[in-house]
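Why should sequence recovery work at all? Because a backbone constrains its sequence more than one might expect. Tight turns favour small or flexible residues, buried strands favour hydrophobic ones, and helices have their own preferences. The token representation captures these environments compactly. In the example below, the structure is given first.
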């Protein structure tokens, strides 16, 4: 695992990598009864994580990464195939974290809340027909005028860190709630309001610098 080190104007700091497993789903406030994205998608994500100590208990974290969200439409009387939309984002979250040691300085619990801005970089559509045939299409973002290129929202996390020498191994869970209406087509008869939701489970390693 590649780790970055350097100096900072803050106190003690840590830098590392995080690998995540995301369970994603969009949420439609208003939608056609025939098109319901009720199935969740499981996606992989990764990010570079940097923590800056503000004092003994509080930290500022910056966690840019590559995140996959999406939605799946099950086959229905109006849809003769399972239709999956995979949305791939570059994400830029900034969080405030609170940490509390629970066993000397070897184990600590932490929680964090923050705000995230995401840039859509690609959309891949997968259609699985009734006969089992799968059709995969990469959608041209310039032509996808029904999808907004940006998303933003709030996230909250909780986790535990295990200190080993100058390294910290951690596991955490994160919930994301998007605020941006992702359906930009005002003439759409399928969706009028779409927001992203996701739960992410992460594993990672930090190095103190």
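From this structural description, the recovered sequence reads:
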């Amino acid at each position: 695992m590649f780790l970055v080190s350097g100096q900072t104007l803050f106190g003690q700091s840590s830098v590392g990598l995080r690998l995540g497993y995301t369970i994603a789903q969009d949420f439609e406030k208003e939608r056609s009864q025939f098109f319901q994205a009720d199935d969740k998608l499981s996606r992989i994500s990764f990010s570079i994580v940097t923590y800056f100590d503000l004092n003994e208990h509080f930290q500022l974290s910056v966690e840019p990464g590559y995140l996959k969200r999406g939605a799946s439409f099950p086959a229905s009387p109006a849809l003769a195939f399972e239709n999956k939309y995979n949305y791939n984002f570059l994400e830029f979250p900034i969080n405030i974290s609170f940490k509390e040691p629970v066993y000397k300085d070897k184990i600590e619990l932490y929680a964090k809340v923050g705000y995230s801005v995401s840039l859509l970089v690609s959309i891949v559509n997968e259609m699985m027909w009734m006969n089992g045939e799968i059709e995969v299409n990469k959608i041209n973002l310039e032509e996808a005028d029904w999808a907004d290129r940006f998303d933003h929202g709030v996230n909250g996390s909780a986790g535990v860190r295990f200190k080993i020498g100058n390294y910290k191994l951690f596991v955490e869970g994160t919930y994301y709630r998007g605020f941006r209406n992702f359906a930009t087509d005002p003439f759409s008869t399928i969706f009028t309001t779409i927001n992203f939701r996701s739960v992410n489970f992460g594993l990672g390693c930090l190095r103190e610098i």
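A few observations help interpret the result. The beta strands are 13-31, 41-53, 58-62, 65-73, 81-103, 107-129, 134-139, 150-164, 167-178, 191-208.
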